[in-house]
Amino acid sequence: MRLSDASVVIRPRTAWEAMDLGVLMAGEHRVLLMGSWALVTLPVFALLTALLWQYPSTAIFLFWWLKPAFDRLPLYILSKALFGETPSLKEAVRQWPRLLKGQLLASLTWRRLSLSRSFVMPVSQLEGLDGPARQKRLGMLQQRNAGAARWLTTVGVHLEIGLWFGCMALFYLFIPQNVEMDWDWQRLALATSSEGLWLEHLGNAFYALILVFWEPIYVACGFSLYLNRRTVLEAWDLELVFRRLRQRLSSVAPLLLLVIGLMLLPLSPPVMADAKPLTPQNASQSVKALLDKPPFKNPETVTRYRFGEEKPAVKNETHRDGKLPAWLKALLDNLNSDTFKHIAQGVEVLLWGLLIGSLIMLAWRYREWLSTFVSRRAPRKPKMVKPVPMQLFGLELGTETLPDDVASAAEQLWATQPREALGLLYRGLLSRLLHDFNLPLKSADTEGQVLACVHQLQQPHLLAFSDELTRHWQNLAYGHQLPPLCAQQKLCSDWRALFSAGNTP
Q: Which stretch, 54-68, 235-249, 446-460, has highest mean pLDDT?
């Protein structure tokens, strides 16, 4: 794959931002994804319904269980579309049988109930890894985004259930009133004969239609999490930067070679002759010596308990040849296995838990007796109150340095001194955060850290105003860009709405 051909911006993202990217990718190719999913899954659903008409629950369970096999088609489409090779609907459907060849049994058995299914599926399908190589790869990928992948599956399950109930309710609302009055819903819901089968199959059909919409989005979110993790691990963004830099420097490469050649001319022949000749043997020795040193090789000593080596047994009357009995040797080999180690660790944890629980029960049983021997704690020293900073970013934050009506004073300054007007609003905001909201701001805080503290207050209007005012302040302070007239009026009106006498905390 060529990262320069990617249709999305390659950069590290948070887990939730990566899933948002997956939703956008699914939306961009929604017709292809939903159409291919419907062409593959709906015939299978119809076949299961026809074969298991008397067992609708079994039919929908088998259809649900086959979802990992169906998910391979959206993943194939997204992986191709990422690098500008979007297949057509006909090509995608033709590729689906070929996609089922690799590790299908594992996907439908012991890996079926994995909550990280959408995140780890590209490892098997796109990278083609299996066995120890796959486990090693997953151990590296799941260090950061495994929790987000599990949350994605959990939210997806609840979303499917919610959409299914919504479809059933919508169907009920579209039933004519005269027809609805003739129905006995309780009898239909509790019916065990064939008269209630159509209602169950109708619910199954709603679920199959819901998956046409939702399942491609679920696969796309897991695929975007996988891409984001590889971007972080393999530094794809840095690779793209170096490629662009190489393209820029390709035009000046002959000049650089000429300069390097001119610099090498003054070297005298004796100096060049003293250099060690480069031969395969010398290169191999140098590489080996380099790999034997840190950071490539860091030897360490690991101490652990194990059974000793077998020693010749003392001759006795029972075993005159000095060898251990076969049953005893087999027992010792079993005790030295990993299974016994896990059992021993479990017993150790259980014993420690019993000991700690017994001590807690004894302390609770004789708490009154122990209280007579425990002295009272000394009174805690009052915490030192940190002084409120008087300046941030070179701005005076004392309440006495601000006018009574900050918004009116800023409006008067907009026409002649816009920088002072915006600085007055930002200085007033910092003063309010310090004195009215008691935010623990420091003199060394940046604008981003101030916004993070405001976010902890959980006040959306205050956070929105602070974010907008900080953005205009940074544009003016660092980019010398004045806010437009509409933004000037909006900042003053928002200030009055937030910090008027009735709204001040």
A: 54-68
Side chain identity at residue 168, one-letter code: M
For the segment 310-314, the average pLDDT, to the nearest whole number, is: 48
**Tell me, what amino acid is at 80?**
K
What does the pLDDT read at residue 236? 60
The pairing of strands 391-392 and 395-396 is: antiparallel
353, part of any domain: no
What does pTM read for this prediction?
0.48
Cis peptide before 295 (omega within 30 of 0): yes
Give the end of a domain, one of 239, 256, 276. Answer: 239
In whole angstroms, give the CA distance from residue 252 to residue 264: 19
Residues 268, 273, 276, 281, CA torsion sign: positive
Helices and strands: H and E segment counts in the chain:
24, 2
What is the CA angle 243-244-250, rounded to 5? 85
Residue 308 resides in a domain: no
d(CA 163, CA 172): 14
- Give every CB contact of residue 418 below 8 A, 6+ residues apart in sequence: 476, 482, 483, 488
Which of residues 196 and 210 earns the better pLDDT score? 210
Token output for 289: 């010596």
Q: For residue range 119-133, what is the model confidence (pLDDT) as tens digits?
A: 888 888 888 888 888
Q: For residues 505 and 51, give the distance between their C-alpha atoms in angstroms, rounded to a whole number.
A: 67
Q: What average pLDDT does range 195-202 have in this prediction?
A: 78
Domain termination residue (choose one: 239, 261, 276): 239
CA dist 10 and 241 (Å) reads 10
Cα–Cα distance for residue pair 116/118, rounded to 1 Å: 6
Residue 505 has pLDDT above 50, yes or no: yes
Name the CA dihedral angle for 461, 464, 470, 472, rounded to a multiple of 10 degrees. Answer: -110
Q: What is the number of alpha carbons within 13 Å of residue 344 lying toward its C-beta?
A: 10
Taking a C-beta distance cutoff of 8 angstroms, is the pair 62, 48 a contact? yes
Element (H, E) at 396: strand 395-396
Residue 249 pLDDT exceeds 80: no
Helix (H), strand (E), coil (C) string for 281-333? HHHHHHHHHHHCCCCCCCCCCCCCCCCCCCCCCCCCCCCCCCCCCHHHHHHHH
Q: How many domains does the chain have?
A: 2
Q: Exposure of 209 by Cβ count < 10 A (0-12 exposed, 13-18 middle, 19+ buried)? A: middle
Give the SS3 label for residue 395. Answer: strand
Q: Is residue 474 part of a domain?
A: yes
CA distances (Å), origin 443, targets 98, 396, 419: 62, 11, 22
Domain of residue 477: give its range: 391-499
Give the containing element (helix H, strand E) for 462.
helix 460-479
Give the lowest-confidence range in 205-209, 269-273, 386-390, 454-458. Answer: 269-273
